[in-house]
Every structure is written in C-alpha cells, then in structure tokens.
Amino acid sequence: MVDDDFTAQDYRLQFRKCTSNHFEDVYVGSETEFIVLHIDPNVDYQFRVCARGDGRQEWSPWSVPQIGHSTLVPHEWTAGFEGYSLSSRRNIALRNDAESSGVLYSSAPTYFCGQTLTFRVETVGQPDRRDSIGVCAEKQNGYDSLQRDQAVCISTNGAVFVNGKEMTNQLPAVTSGSTVTFDVEAVTLGSTNNNEGGNFKLRVTISSNNREVVFDWLLDQSCGSLYFGCSFFYPGWKVLVF
Question: Please, what's the b/e burial string for 165-174 (b: 16 or more CB within 10 A of its CB; e: otherwise)?
C-alpha cells in the first residue's frame, strides 16, 4: 500500500530480457522520463519501477512489469577508420592521436526522419572551424568535413552548415558535456518550384545548450534514412551517439 499523501521523490527503474531471471537497475533518480540505451532490436524486455518518498529510506512495492521492445537498429560508428577509436558497442568514438583526414560515418543509414538523433560530447580537444557533427544523405569519401553538399552539420564553434553553406544563425560552442540533437521531418515529396536546387525538402531542427536553429534542407532526391558522421582535426574529442 502507498499512502494517499505519498509524493515520489526518487524513482528506481529496472529491466531484463524476458528470457532472463534477473532484473538490473538502469536508472535511479528524480526524473520521470529516461531513455534506456543498449537494448537489442526485436527482443522483448520487461520494465518495472518503484518510488521513494521525500526523506524515506524504503522503496515502494514494484509496479506490475511492462513488456516492450524496439525495432530500431542501434546507431554505430564505422569500425576500422584511421584516427578514431570506438567503444565495444561502437556508439562512442574517440578522436585519437593517429593521422586522419576524413569523416567518420555511421556504419549504416540508421537515422530515420521523425526520430531524434542525439550526440553527447564526453570530452573535448582543441577546436577547429572545420570540425563537424551532423547527418548526410550518403557517405562521400574525399571530404575532410561534413561542411559539404548533401549534408547538414554543426561545427565545434557553433557554426551551422547546410549543404556546405554557413548559416547566419549559429549555436553556442560545443563544450564537454554538450548535447547536440537533430530532428528531421519530411516537408515535401517530389519537385519544388524554386531556384534553390534540390527537389526534396526536409525540415531540420538542431538543438544545443538550450538553443536551437530550424531550417529547410534541400536534397537532390528522396531520402527516408540518413547517415550520421563527425570529423575532428585534433585529438581528444569523444562523442556518444544515440
């Protein structure tokens, strides 16, 4: 039983694969929303939560377990690219001391329009105006940055580039702990009557440090899923993607 005047101060979330006998803690804190990372696609998981009142030591009884699963393929960086070291799950990329000239791309176009793509900068190195974090319609080798055609990105100094052109509006500089999110939605299908080039329009929102920019991105062709990528000229940058 929970008292009528019970006010939750902290929550404890646990999960397990339905084939497992043991729950494990995945979050303890005051937030009422939490994104569980590192789950396998198309596998059923059980989730349960309990709460603790202000000033209390004991937790409430567990909720009835809820079953859920994800069909989303995990976001992964491409392994084996010179200049970057990856975590075991390939969702964290560290710019190492090796020479690198190019963009580290995702292993597949796993970002779909309508979703939110998040980059969290864990550590920083020396910034360079050519640095980039962003999304693109296709992998293109031979470029040292995503500041190019058919791509949108933010540089570590906060400048935003759309198809290689710098926008007037810019975001705060990227610092350790910064979170950069991309939200992309399809606006039009087919040809558009304008002189800007491109016949497929996407509405892009990039958010960072409580600021955001919104703009239309014109592509040459329809694109339901996108690659993501990053490029850093100096070592020390570490980026988690989810």
Answer: eeeeebbebb
